[in-house]
């Protein structure tokens, strides 16, 4: 294992700056003395877009590629037209670095607030495909802006792309105590892509006889997420369905303030990127109100990806302890939460 | 207004038979003496498919077209491959009869069980587009079944199709006390369709100055549906997003046992179809365990569509009374619930 981490840091917009600062604080605190942490900050986001018109250039990609991993705060601002930074930066990076495993764990800790009655057990991971589906940018418009406009969006699904993410999800399910994997799709309506996903899922299942499998339509999945979230262990799903159900999963398991994600290239051909699921929240930016927990948990995912399992575990434990005590701790600022987590992982 | 109703009845599969019987019971009870109710039953569904290979023929469509409206129980059975009855019957009918307004109200009544803590206020309507989007069946596969398979699904969106459903939703919002309309899409990623929807939404908004509007991404919408459902009054959205969020909406507002829907052709060029949101639930079929409430509420939507507003209102009131007393009524069978509702509306 490498004893140095060369990290690209992208604070981004809104609360991104604040939460990333706390993520780095905790990262520094948890790493052993002999691990050399190098960080380089990049200025992607709304400000750079307004100044230069650039979102992510080839030179940027070449620079980012030199790093072991990327930590991102949040990208997006109301001053930029919808889609420009999402397609021009976030998705461009996921696609350029082949981040085909978009990993989003959900765990409801005791004492943590949830909109669900009865504090159900929630402990599952969504493996969302990250480089295909309706996210490819395929499609277009004709007769644009007229009453005869036709706009299409093409969901592209390949056996290659589906198999690798399904295989990754089976391996993750196999490594968990319950060993259960649920495929979420809409194969009764999106029959072309649905059959591809279902067939590959069933084929790969044969290689993992210990893993219990089932299938649910995405609409029904949203029902189970609020009525019986304990039924889920690992979920594998398409890019768009994954986008939707992971926001819901975050909402029921403590809120997007604590939802972490990894945009992972498992073969490490490119650096993986770790980011909170929440956005840039411009309404509360700069006020020290943002919860850095999701970013700190994203740092844990980053460490685990790089092989620092013990350190990742210490962060998870610190966050769990902090969250369960939170109700009694009163309102804390972004940096106070960061300080508390940093001292827990250091101790 | 016509003083006769010529109704096509499609009990379908599983619990469909049982719940439709109760829907008809309540319909007969609520109609004034001078309204002549004629019903004709059709045998669509799994049994007919197995016997004849047919799902919905041209002759079937011609016969159905003669009716004023259609009442459907549920279609679907595990013995039929996924997609066959959905695409071959349900969606075929929605498309053939141009059911572009898929109406799905959600209302949480006092005392009704919800998975959400704190019994929030929920009273909104989703206007789901019904004839476009990823539901068109456009797409296909190449190199099918090989490791080089590519499967596509094409979401088709037209200015014509979007405008008519958006206009319908604005009119519905205008007619409600809060007069608020929310567009739900994913216009930061699905930019081609997203811009079409957003532009048309903003244009039509100018004609409805009294209606307050906002926009939320579909992923965020799932968060609000569990953390702040009271923020919604009317939602207009795409076919697939509507499918997903209405299942979630049903789950939080009393469960799919009480979720009704109308597949509406507002201009009445074709008969509209009314059906519970739930499926055929083969696991409980034939046991008198199914809740007919969603079907009865679908009958209310049907009556309102045909201009019988007073009768529709009486059904809604009866259901509300039954639901709020339900906790104290113990377990009742499908027909006991139907009887109770029928006697309430008759009284
Ligand atoms: C901002 C947007 C492009 C992104 C997505 O849709 O993937 C976000 O919602 C997420 O889930 O990471
Ligand atoms: C059964 C299926 C085709 C249908 C849909 O996806 O529209 C159902 O989920 C619904 O919501 O009515």
TrEMBL record, chains A, B:
SMART domains for this protein: Iso_dh
Enzyme class: oxidoreductase
Binding-site list for NAD(+): 279-291
Binding site for substrate: 94, 104, 128, 219
KW Magnesium (keyword) present: yes
Subunit structure and binding partners: Homodimer.
Protein name as it appears in the record: 3-isopropylmalate dehydrogenase
Species lineage: Bacteria, Bacillati, Actinomycetota, Actinomycetes, Kitasatosporales
